[in-house]
From TrEMBL:
Reactions this protein catalyses: L-leucine + 2-oxoglutarate = 4-methyl-2-oxopentanoate + L-glutamate; L-valine + 2-oxoglutarate = 3-methyl-2-oxobutanoate + L-glutamate; L-isoleucine + 2-oxoglutarate = (S)-3-methyl-2-oxopentanoate + L-glutamate
Protein name: Probable branched-chain-amino-acid aminotransferase
InterPro entries tied to this protein: Aminotrans_IV, Aminotransferase-like, BCAT-like_C, BCAT-like_N, Class-IV_PLP-Dep_Aminotrnsfr
Pathway the protein acts in: Amino-acid biosynthesis; L-valine biosynthesis; L-valine from pyruvate: step 4/4; Amino-acid biosynthesis; L-isoleucine biosynthesis; L-isoleucine from 2-oxobutanoate: step 4/4; Amino-acid biosynthesis; L-leucine biosynthesis; L-leucine from 3-methyl-2-oxobutanoate: step 4/4
Domain of life of the native organism: Bacteria
Cofactor(s) the protein needs: pyridoxal 5'-phosphate
Organism (species): Roseibium alexandrii (strain DSM 17067 / NCIMB 14079 / DFL-11)
A Pfam family the protein falls into: Aminotran_4
Keywords tagged on the record: Amino-acid biosynthesis, Aminotransferase, Branched-chain amino acid biosynthesis, Lyase, Pyridoxal phosphate, Transferase
One Gene Ontology term of the molecular function aspect: L-valine-2-oxoglutarate transaminase activity
Lineage of origin: Bacteria, Pseudomonadati, Pseudomonadota, Alphaproteobacteria, Hyphomicrobiales
Cellular component GO terms, alphabetical: cytosol
Amino acid sequence: RIAYVNGQYVQHSEAAVHIEDRGYQFADGVYEVCEVWNNQIVDMPRHLDRLGRSLSELSIDWPMSRPAVEFVLRQVVRRNKVRNGLVYIQVTRGVSKRDHFFPPANVAPSIVVTARSSSPAAVNAQAEAGISVFSYPENRWPRVDIKTVALLPNVLAKQSAKERGGKEAWYVDADGNVTEGGSTNAWIVTKDGKLITRPAESGILRGITRTAILDLVEREGLSFEERPFSLEEAYDAKEAFVTAATNIAMPVVRIDDKVIGNGHPGSVATRLRELFHTATD
Ligand code: PDD
């Protein structure tokens, strides 16, 4: 496998950044995960728009021009012969002696790009069974709109879900509303068939898959509303699912100890999942 690190394509097994990289010491960096489907990077412009926004919110410069970043992403996909899988990009504030203050202006941001194949069959098998999620108290910083590599709360929430047999954690805020998953956006379908997902203005990352699914929902003329929903409402929903670049729309069949709907993947989530790649082609 090949990775890209600060201007060079290197063997993945030997790819390394310096111990004084600010990503390592302060989680002072941002990232994107894009799906690769049929050799194409899905929704790359939107991912790079969001990367630019994350960088600018943290006053980190682009490590190189946006077209150059696009070129490297495509190169890493190609050099690893990824037909279906993921490409990952991480940009940090760079390498400098440990000091909380930003480093001098001449310190260049670090950039790392990796890619790996994944089996669509394995993800599809999971989608046919549906996943369990477990609620978890919202304990992240308020700037979850920035896609930072500071993911310790997400790691702990997801691990806690895993130890109870789940695949995802759903954060619940102080008002009892679901914000999002540890690495996904959260959706429900009400008993009268309306899709609900939380507005992206507060409490969540504006998922690229979420935006693409909303486009699809409008195109298909499905009934939907962007509003917060409570954990109680989710327990009572006809369907639930999560969206992310890593799993498109993944049906949720259990939340905590409650079976959702009839305990099988819902028809809306399944249809959106089937339509997704035709809509992004
Ligand atoms: N996670 N919310 C959070 C907290 C996320 O980390 C992610 C993505 C999403 C969905 O965003 P998108 O649709 O753009 O993938 C929502 C990536 C996949 C990850 O950390 O692996």
